[in-house]
Amino acid sequence: MTLFENVRVISFEPPAVSEPMDVVVAGSDAVGEPNLRGTILETGKSLASKYPSAKRVSGAYLSPGLVCGHTHLYSALARGLMVDIAPSKDFAQQLQHLWWRLDRAIDLPILEASALAGCADAAMNGVTSLVDHHAGPQAIDGSLSVIRQAYEEVGIRGLLCYETTERNGIEGAREGIRENLRFAREIDADRASGKKPLVDGMIGGHASFTIGDETLAQLGDAVRSSGRGAHIHAGEDKFDAVDSRYRFGKDLAFRFDEAGLLGPKTVIGHGLWLTEGEAELLNARGSFLAHNARSNMNNAVGYNSLLPRFSNVILGTDGMSGDMLEEFRFACFRHRESGGPWWPADFLRCLDRGNRLMERYMGASGSSGVAFGRVQAGCAADLVLWDYDPPTPLVGGNIAGHIAFGLSSRSVRSVMVRGDFVVEDRRPTFDADGIAAKARAETERLWKRMEER
Prior knowledge:
The protein has 453 residues and is an alpha/beta fold. The protein has helices at residues 91-104, 108-124, 143-154, 170-192, 213-226, 238-248, 252-258, 276-285, 293-299, 324-337, 344-362, 399-405, 432-451, and strands spanning 2-12, 15-17, 21-25, 40-44, 55-58, 61-64, 66-71, 127-132, 157-160, 199-201, 203-207, 230-234, 267-270, 288-291, 313-315, 383-386, 412-417, 420-424, 427-428.
């Protein structure tokens, strides 16, 4: 049990900053009612006498944990890549020359190291939940369980899937669907036995231009049979949207919808080249759009001028890093440069909305019955303690401005997931040194294998 003493609680939605108060949480070792473990027990004034055995932590600001709504942990070992990559004239060539070479070079030991490195980076940046989209056609079977082990070793939550695609052949696509369903059954079995997994599964697809109608129909069947949502790229580059209309006679989102992929648990990655009608369709289905500003800029694929038309925009990094406050800033500034109408407060809602996605899998409407993204009694104890001494007042009305121009991941002091510290006083509770050493060793193998492909 932990007592956060005399903290000011930050709420992202609705934006608010409390007066100094105490927050008591129950960790995995808490005695008493099992259903209370991993939740916030109570908030209020002067609670130390009521919980004399609780570990007392004083400090600054306490907020809900951050959620990364779309990432690729398999790319974590590409930082500083030293591989001969042919110049690319467009995004399609970049996929062929770089990313599809990288994913073909991944085996399970490389995947383990990459997933651990990505999870560790995210945790140190205040991220308590990561939504991953995996690719690795040479080692599909069991890959999601390897990633799950990395999440559990670091101690963070997440949603995992394998990106089904026909670019490595029809049998490769079938293997991808089987892995998604196998992992969903693994999680279902754990829950049926009384366990509370830190992760859940989604049904992954790469993008429309690498998925034929038969495979898409099978993905829809997997969504229905598993009770999960889809996680799929759509319109990251203009080519994807044009290809869908040319080959299938349908806009991307309508093609997905006819196959049964859209719904309240589905995440569409990027969506830069979706139409107004497709935005309305995603809204009607309650699906999420993951906006990845830094990656879009890096890949020069354009800008999503319709962003304000989507009801459920969340923020992701597309594998760029685990720093969600940096992603928030890029999202704000790129939008302003485009002449868009949103201000930082609008992107603050996007930052918070990742918690609504987690709720649909693990929260009040999911498996655990608790709410996410709120520092209130009964809610999930996924929290970040910030060391931040602002030179100007920090109040509800200007939280977004402080994040855009001041508060950063450098201010993260401690991070808690399900009531247990994964970072405490800037020190990871997981083996960060061992993870880094393993990552460096496997990076050498990965880069060598890329050169051979």
